[in-house]
Design brief:
Elements: H1 10-35, H2 46-49, H3 59-82, H4 89-108, H5 114-139
Helix pairs in contact: 1-3, 1-4, 3-5, 4-5
Membrane topology: Multi-pass membrane protein
Organism: Nelumbo nucifera (Sacred lotus)
Main location: Golgi
Length: 152
C-alpha cells in the first residue's frame, strides 16, 4: 500500500464500486434474513427497495431499519479493506447510497417517507464517518523499521 502519485484507473474504481455494492446487499440480505425473515411468512425484494417497509410504527419496520444500519456498519469495514484511503470514503459511501436510491426509484417510485430518508442518511453518515475513522487509524500507524547491524 504505497501512497505516492495516484494514477486514475477507471476499471479499478468501477470494480471497487461493484464489489462494495454487492457486499452491501449481501450484508443487507443476511441481516434481513436473520431479523426480518423470522417475522414474516415470505421474504421479498419489497424489504430492500420499497420505502414503505421502513417504518417506525411496527416491530418488523424496526427490524428493517436495524438491518439497514447494520449494513452501513459492515460497509465501513468493507471500505477499510477495499478502498484503504480516508479521502475516498465519502465518495464510495455516497455512491453506494445513490445507486440504492436509483434502485428504489425503479422498484417502488420516489421515496416519500421521511423515515426512509432519515435511515438512509444516517446509514450514509455512519458508513462514511466510521470508514474514514478506520482508514485514518490504519494510515497513521507507525511503519515498523527493523535495523540490522552490519558485521563489517
Amino acid at each position: 500500500m504505497f501512497y505516492g502519485a495516484i494514477v486514475w484507473d477507471p476499471l479499478l474504481i468501477v470494480s471497487q464500486i461493484l464489489c462494495l455494492q454487492c457486499l452491501y446487499y449481501l450484508t443487507l440480505g443476511l441481516s434481513m434474513f436473520i431479523l426480518v425473515g423470522t417475522r414474516v411468512s415470505r421474504m421479498s425484494l419489497v424489504y430492500f427497495f420499497d420505502y414503505a417497509t421502513l417504518t417506525a410504527s411496527t416491530v418488523t419496520g424496526w427490524c428493517v431499519i436495524t438491518s439497514f444500519l447494520l449494513s452501513a456498519l459492515a460497509g465501513a469495514c468493507y471500505i477499510l479493506y477495499l478502498i484503504e484511503r480516508a479521502k475516498k470514503c465519502l465518495d464510495f459511501s455516497a455512491t453506494i447510497y445513490i445507486i440504492h436510491l436509483f434502485m428504489c426509484i425503479v422498484y417502488g417510485g420516489w421515496p416519500s417517507s421521511i423515515t426512509w430518508w432519515v435511515v438512509n442518511g444516517t446509514g450514509l453518515a455512519v458508513m462514511a464517518l466510521l470508514g474514514e475513522w478506520l482508514c485514518i487509524r490504519r494510515e497513521l500507524r507507525e511503519i515498523p523499521i527493523t535495523r540490522y547491524r552490519s558485521n563489517v
